[in-house]
């Protein structure tokens, strides 16, 4: 929530893969612009629980549930359509579009932009967003003691290291490290 709590607007520009911690960083940003072909997901749900419960809030309960139960990814287009991202653009246009949007925001006086950001955040607070996000901390801690998580840690600490553990985790799904899904 540290990024979310910053006074000035924060913009995320996502291209290619945005997974696990990358998605957590993006959810803290005020505006999220993605390449149409970006892949956004949280494959870590295959062995644990994320510490930020943004899925249902930003994606809606049904798509959020699907991604939490599968660890699958969505494209940048789907991310924009579902509400995770502000907009999506063709990859070759992304940087220019984001820079143009940042320039437009910069034309607003800083004090007004900061108050406008807080106005939206207060509305989100009334709807329960910060509380929902923070509720994940306890559930994430509970995950640390599960047999599944402990087995993953043991696998990570073995000869194959983290790469081997992640490849083993994703092999049966045929995605991320195991194919060009």
Automatic annotation (TrEMBL):
Belongs to the enoyl-CoA hydratase/isomerase family. SUPFAM superfamilies: ClpP/crotonase (SSF52096). Pfam families: ECH_1. PANTHER family: ENOYL-COA HYDRATASE (PTHR43802), IP11341P-RELATED (PTHR43802:SF1). This is Unannotated protein. InterPro entries: ClpP/crotonase-like_dom_sf, Enoyl-CoA_hydra/iso. Coiled coil: none annotated. It comes from freshwater metagenome.
